[in-house]
Amino acid sequence: MTSSLLVVGGGAAGMMAAVAAARLGAETALLERNQKVGRKLYITGKGRCNVTNHCSAEEALAAVPRNSRFLYSAMSRTSPADVEDFFTGLGVPLKVERGNRVFPQSDRAADIIDALYNELRRRKVPILQGRAAALRPCGDDGVSVELEDGRTLNAGAVVLATGGASYPATGSTGDGYRLAAELGHTVVPPRPSLVPLESPDPDCAKMQGLALKNVLLKVKNRKNKVVYQEQGELLFTHFGLSGPLVLSASAHMRDFGGDSYTCLIDLKPALDEQKLDERLLRELSGGANRDMSNLALTLVPRLMAPVLLERAGIPGERKARDVTRGERRRLLEVLKGFSVAVSGPRPIAEAIITSGGVKVSEVDPRTMMSKKVPGLFFAGELLDVDAYTGGFNLQIAWATGRAAGEAAAEYVSRL
User: Fold this and answer.
1) Half-sphere exposure of 51 (CA within 13 A, CB side)
2) Predicted local confidence at residue 258, as pLDDT
3) Which CATH number fits domain 196-345: 3.40.630.30, 3.30.40.10, 3.30.1360.140, 1.10.8.50?
4) If you classify domain 2-192+355-413 with CATH, what class do you get?
5) Which residues of the chain register pLDDT less than 70?
6) Is residue 60 within 8 Å of 36, Cβ to Cβ?
7) Strands lying side by side in the sheet with 52-53
8) Which H helix or E strand runs over 194?
9) Which of 11, 134, 211, 246 has its CA 20 to 30 A from that of 260?
């Protein structure tokens, strides 16, 4: 089969690239290995799909810790506001929530996928099922794509948007890294980002399943420098820590090989030390005859109470009236700085996104075209760019997808 333009990968970036190319009149086809497009989009934002962030292009770039300069052109052309306009134009009403996160009003990721799928149908973009096994440059005749089943697809231009290596069950198995490397591209080794964290602390397993809301998480490195600080929700697991705060924090912990990190959890962020000490005095005096194992339940959830007392060095059977000033001070310190050492991230398969990918210095930032293979374009998570949580990673997918799709359409128009 021959097509003017072939997009490989039916995720966010791939669908956007195909739509953008087709809107410019390019004869476009989309190749997807899964039976349905947008598999990974279904699970983004806990199934609600955090489409983008309601902020300026400059603010979005500031949320990209790696290679943000490379994205300047694409993000300027497709800002978060442009993405919002794009989806409302496709008939998906949007809403803005905490942290300027943008979601469909329906809270259904399926509405975003359906809108893209229906636009592809309107633009008569065929969706082909198959897995790319190899890409072959054909000089001035474009690029051929050899499939696992033996078929060959020829195209004047190919947009490679196969995603990273996170959530492999959705089809993101890192195929694009291999395909790019075989064509001479440098691939920065992928590693997990926005991922749960492992801890050697046995207390985590003791509190497995405990979710803490409205706590302040502070992450310090070996030099005691704060690399992340935010208030929100986290979860204790059998392996360590997870939850929204922890996933966000993981993107700031980028050097486990040469650094070490400690999570400090302020369990009572609404109270400064003085006010918290006053509360402790009230609790201890008001419940003077209670065992501390019982009184601790007024301070923290049930699973955490014995851990809290153990860390403060207070026996559970100690009566509240017998707690010393020093013990009260240690209790306060634990409440304001519950410490959890972190040994590293969970495996890449459990990460929301992948950091690493095709080296951006080998890609034209305006067009997303390879500097090594004419007619080959890249988009989305396959590139060595990633961002913090809040809709910024999907914003990268939409912006690079549109840039690649439009540039590829212009490229084939000149053939």
Assistant:
1) 33
2) 82
3) 1.10.8.50
4) alpha beta
5) 1-3, 165-173
6) no
7) 52-53, 101-104, 94-97
8) none
9) 211
